[in-house]
């Protein structure tokens, strides 16, 4: 059973000093996005600090339009306002290293405000990478407003969540969930992938699954065929793992972090020669899945693998892994890593 629990919602308010300063400064700052409401917000979790928050979602080619509302409490003089769209790749390690790949600025000249003043902005830069929150890596998009003042600048930030549909794979890859055999049988064809696992003359198995490319809510169908079994096997598992790789210039030397997202027991006890063990994994039930990122600005990647693990009665483990590629299919634009959590909470509340 999957553990389904809601994460603590991240506090979105500013710090105490910031609130006091804003009150003394005498001008409220609000970012209003065109065409965005509550229905356009997605729930996003952070696996490190165990929090979640609601963010406005944008597609990769969608322009970011809106306005900054400045509401002074009297006559308010500023030395110019900068509205920026910033995107960066950041490490969570000490030093908070980052590589910025989008920096667009709309500048407004110095002025004296007497009442509510809207400042319109529009940013059309293509957002080529999806937002990502991992164990060692962050890909973030922010709107940043900087009001230049004689004593101290006033800054307001809003994070946006960007998703990108892979139109090429959406068109070329069949959607297994639409097949009549989706829940009943495995169909192997030219897209199937096979890998062999052998330990001298003691063990030889064939691990085969139906294809290599899967969308985020698909299923993986496969089978394990035992050809030689001169080994006392206690049980076997298939695990879905994610590997984050961070490379220079983000870090001095390559950093690799792997985590097991979910494990499934596929067998219990020693099989006989010729025995076939079926495999059926539903990706929708696995938390924190994202598309595969093969190359993020030539300094990071996020990849997924299927790991076959066989454990003997003596506790020895034998591994074999095969990379798979996950993609976001058309219609999954607002699907985030916490969608399964929200569904689980809703079901529990109905009980």
Automatic annotation (TrEMBL):
The highest taxon in the source lineage is Eukaryota
One Pfam family hit: Vps26
* Any single biological process term in GO: intracellular protein transport
Gene3D superfamilies tied to this protein? 2.60.40.640
Entry's family note: Belongs to the VPS26 family.
Report what the protein is called. Uncharacterized protein TCIL3000_11_10530
């Amino acid at each position: 059973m999957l553990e389904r629990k809601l994460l603590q919602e991240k506090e979105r308010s500013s710090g105490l000093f910031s609130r006091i300063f804003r009150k003394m400064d005498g001008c409220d700052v609000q970012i209003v996005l065109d065409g965005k409401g509550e229905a356009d917000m997605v729930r996003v979790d952070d696996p490190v600090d165990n929090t979640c928050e609601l963010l406005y979602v944008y597609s990769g080619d969608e322009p970011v339009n809106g306005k900054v509302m400045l509401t002074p409490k009297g006559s308010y003089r500023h030395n110019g306002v900068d509205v920026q769209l910033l995107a960066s790749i950041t490490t969570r390690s000490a030093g908070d290293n980052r590589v910025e790949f989008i920096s667009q600025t709309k500048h407004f000249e110095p002025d004296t405000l007497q009442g509510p003043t809207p400042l319109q902005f529009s940013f059309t830069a293509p957002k080529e990478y999806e937002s990502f929150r991992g164990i060692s890596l962050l890909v973030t998009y922010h709107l940043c407003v900087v009001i230049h003042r004689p004593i101290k600048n006033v800054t307001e930030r809003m994070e946006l969540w960007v998703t990108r549909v892979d139109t090429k794979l959406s068109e070329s890859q069949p959607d297994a969930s639409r097949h009549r055999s989706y829940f009943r049988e495995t169909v192997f064809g030219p897209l199937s992938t096979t890998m062999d696992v052998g330990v001298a003359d003691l063990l030889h198995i064939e691990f085969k699954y139906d294809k290599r490319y899967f969308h985020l809510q698909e299923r993986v169908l496969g089978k394990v065929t035992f050809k030689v079994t001169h080994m006392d096997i206690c049980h076997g598992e298939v695990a879905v793992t994610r590997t984050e790789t961070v490379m220079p210039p983000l870090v001095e030397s390559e950093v690799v972090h792997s985590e097991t997202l979910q494990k499934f027991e596929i067998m219990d006890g020693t099989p006989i020669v010729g025995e076939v063990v079926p495999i059926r994994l539903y990706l929708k039930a696995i938390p924190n899945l994202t598309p595969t990122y093969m190359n993020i600005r030539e300094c990071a990647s996020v990849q997924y693998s299927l790991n076959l693990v066989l454990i003997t009665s003596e506790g020895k483990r034998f591994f074999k892994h095969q990379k798979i590629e996950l993609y976001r299919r058309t219609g999954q634009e607002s699907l985030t890593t916490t969608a399964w959590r929200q569904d689980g909470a809703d079901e529990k509340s109905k009980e």
